[in-house]
Design a protein that fits this description.
It is a single chain. The chain is an alpha+beta fold. The chain has 2 domains: 5-162, Dbl homology (DH) domain (Dbl Homology Domain, Chain A, Up-down Bundle); 180-252, Pleckstrin-homology domain (PH domain)/Phosphotyrosine-binding domain (PTB) (PH-domain like). Helices cover 46% and strands 14% of the residues. Helix 4 (52-75) packs antiparallel against helix 7 (112-135).
Length: 265
């Protein structure tokens, strides 16, 4: 927020107010919700000093509707935000690019592309956290019931965000793909040497349909963008990811551009 969102508000010479809204959308709302949840969880005046787990389940239960609505609103605009970023990045000698890359982003901090996609990653992390908490509660307790309700609502929202828009997950039924391990368990290597997907430090940024020009033909793929590699896959009806070639290291990409004249492009 301090590196990109707030400074660019003041630089209307670099980005118009409309493009700024498209790029960052309601990210302030996501921050307020997170801060509100944290404030409640850290509250020291819990009534009757009830168990912390029970209190936490009630906090998340009360915030689930707001969480889902805010993240759906944000994630539905990610593709438009990507278009703004690409258009700004393609300007030769762009002051905008200099502004967002200098000084260099610290190694453990997200650059602007990863920052734009971070809320969707954060939504997956919330869902994983709720599943972990529910798994550590006795089935016949209020907290297990609360967390289960939260999980069901988050999963429904995640499916609406991802599957219906072709974002992050391919079409079809099945458990949400939330982690690198989830993705790896769906991968089948057919024409290339198997490789490990779940390695430390790698982050899953994006997934979606992509048509690739190969000679005179255009072939459809399900493409997964990670922080260091790009993976091309073919998806079966039951969402098995067939991998036919080795991943492309991001460092090897020398040029890129895209447009959205058609949904598949």
């Amino acid at each position: 927020m301090d590196r990109f969102v707030q400074p660019l508000v003041e630089r209307k010479d670099l980005i118009s107010p409309n493009d700024h809204r498209t790029l960052f959308q309601n990210i302030d709302e996501l921050l307020r919700i997170a801060e509100d949840i944290l404030e409640q969880l850290c509250s020291s005046d819990q009534q009757d000093q009830e168990p912390q787990m029970n209190f936490a389940s009630r906090v998340y239960l009360s915030k689930t509707t707001a969480i889902c609505a805010a993240y759906k609103k944000y994630c539905n605009g990610i593709k438009r935000a990507d278009c703004v970023l690409v258009n700004k990045s393609r300007q030769t000698g762009s002051e905008f690019i200099a502004f967002i890359t200098e000084p260099a982003v610290p190694r453990k901090r997200p650059d602007l592309t990863m920052f734009i996609h971070r809320p969707l990653q954060h939504f997956r992390e919330i869902l994983k956290l709720m599943q972990l908490l529910a798994g550590n509660c006795h089935v016949d307790t209020e907290e297990h019931k609360n967390f289960s309700t939260v999980i069901n609502e988050l999963q429904a929202a995640y499916r609406e965000i991802t599957v219906s828009s072709g974002l992050m997950e391919p079409l079809g039924e099945g458990r949400p793909l939330l982690t690198l391990q989830d993705l790896e368990s769906r991968m089948v290597f057919t024409k290339c040497k198997p490789f490990t997907l779940a390695v430390q430090g790698r982050q899953w940024i994006f997934g979606g349909d992509l048509s690739r020009v190969e000679g005179r033909s255009v072939k459809p793929y399900w493409t997964l963008l990670f922080s260091d590699i790009i993976v091309f896959a073919k998806v079966s009806r039951d969402r098995v990811l067939f991998i036919t070639e080795e991943p492309i290291p991001i460092a090897n990409v020398v040029d890129s551009c895209f447009h959205m004249r058609k949904k598949s492009e």
